[in-house]
Amino acid sequence: MKPVAVVSFLVTLIAVTFAKDSRTFAVLRFNNEPGKFSTEGRMDPIVSPGAPAGHSHGVMGGHNFGLTVQGDQLLESNCTNAMIKNDKSNYWVPDLWFQSPRNSTFKKVPLFYMQVYYFFDATNDVIKPFPPGLKMVIGDSSKRTPPATGAIQLDPSRGAIQPVQWVCPANGDPNRYPVDSDGTRAGLQDPTDRGAGAGFPVINCDIAGAPLRQDIHFPSCYNPAAGIDDHKNNMVFPTPNGNKFDCPKGWTHLPHLFYEVYYDTTPFANEWTRDGQTQPYVLSNGDRTGYSSHGDMISGWDTITLQAIIDGCDAGNDGMDKCPRLIGGINTSDRCKIDSAVPNPRDEWLTALPGNNPLSGWGVGGV
Ligand SMILES: *[C@@H]1O[C@H](CO)[C@@H](O)[C@H](O)[C@H]1NC(C)=O
Ligand SMILES: *[C@@H]1O[C@H](CO)[C@@H](O)[C@H](O)[C@H]1NC(C)=O
Ligand SMILES: CC(=O)N[C@H]1CO[C@H](CO)[C@@H](O)[C@@H]1O
To answer: Can you give the pTM of this predicted structure?
Structure first.
């Protein structure tokens, strides 16, 4: 073959091997003890390394989680509650609290369950595994003002990114938000999905097995020049290129993570009266709106295992644990509890949120 023919042959081969014309995906599931994350407390090794964090989080994954996580130390974890044994990553979100309308005290809403979608989206790029130790944060813990609409918006060419949403499965399909809401006193309906919106809904989410849910999308383009620790600058969302989404030149296309976190709101259904305008839930940072929901991830993946999943598994909702020829195998019984470096108070009802965070949003705290 002439050199030109060799090159075009290679280009064709690469295109056949890696170009993705449509999304494939696999859902990572956890072995969580009912009601519980692997650990909880005021810990955030990305935003507040080495010190107690401002608010409490619920954390899943590898045992080497702590106030500080450096380099690829998660890979040395001796267990994980992820069902994939070779995933020692940590995944965390703010805790959710119920505020009693009777006496204003707070009770933690138990976790129902959490799962992480690994989307391998249509792209002209090669999708690579997370670099070990990669730190990512998405969402804005300080946000109390409404976003532009109630919908998710992940396309940078169409304006501000809206990576987070609340989903409220409900019998009879009632309005989840006041119909005239502008987002300053209550949340905003998603115009494309009646079950979802920005901010906490004003109804009880009463579908059995599917209570109130926090949804969080992560960006999938990584900038090696910024590096694994620079969580403020190392990730962006891919931009459209025809029907596909590609990363900037020189960046690495990673899996698109999507957290679904179901909180067990069922026990609180009779603790509040629905008035169609207000709701009793608050995030651990004091946010009454839900606009500030956010998620964090530090990768503890064995890269060979994850690359094989990216290239060869489209298990979808059946779960990543059903991927064929999974390297390292699955763990169905390991709950892998992690000791909390800054545990929350043990009392059932608290007079203040852990860290004494004042309430804010929707007319409270000057916002
Ligand atoms: C506050 O109200 C909750 C019910 O909403 C109740 O279970 C709890 O005991 C109350 N606490 C105090 C100190 O009255
Ligand atoms: C390994 O994990 C268990 C919890 O599952 C813990 O008790 C033990 O101390 C850990 N060992 C090391 C060396 O970290
Ligand atoms: C099914 C399975 O592999 N279970 C194992 C999970 O990991 C723990 C140790 O971390 C083992 O004791 C279990 O046998």
So the answer is: 0.92
